[in-house]
């Protein structure tokens, strides 16, 4: 889905976000999005690690 946006689409989205939220709120929104993305990646990494550990434990038994 995101592969079809392209550079003009991203610029349009940024302009709309700037109009809606204003220049003072955009850094806050970016930080919040970044921390949410980091937490999501950490959680998925932990889930994958737990799955791998449980699979290796089952194979040893």
Please tell me about this protein's structure.
The chain is mainly α and 61 residues long. Helices cover 84% and strands 0% of the residues. The protein has helices spanning 6-21, 26-60. The longest helix has 35 residues, at 26-60.
Properties at a glance:
elongated, 61 residues, mainly alpha, 84% helix
Quick overview of this protein structure:
By secondary structure, the chain is an all-alpha fold. The chain is built from two helices and no strands.
Q: In percent terms, what proportion of residues is strand?
A: under 5%
What summary fits the major beta sheet? Answer: none
What is the assembly state of the chains in this entry? single chain
Tell me, rounded to a whole number, the average pLDDT: 84
The total strand number stands at 0
Helix content: over 70%
Q: What series of H and E elements makes up the topology? A: HH
Helix and strand topology:
Blueprint: H1 6-21, H2 26-60
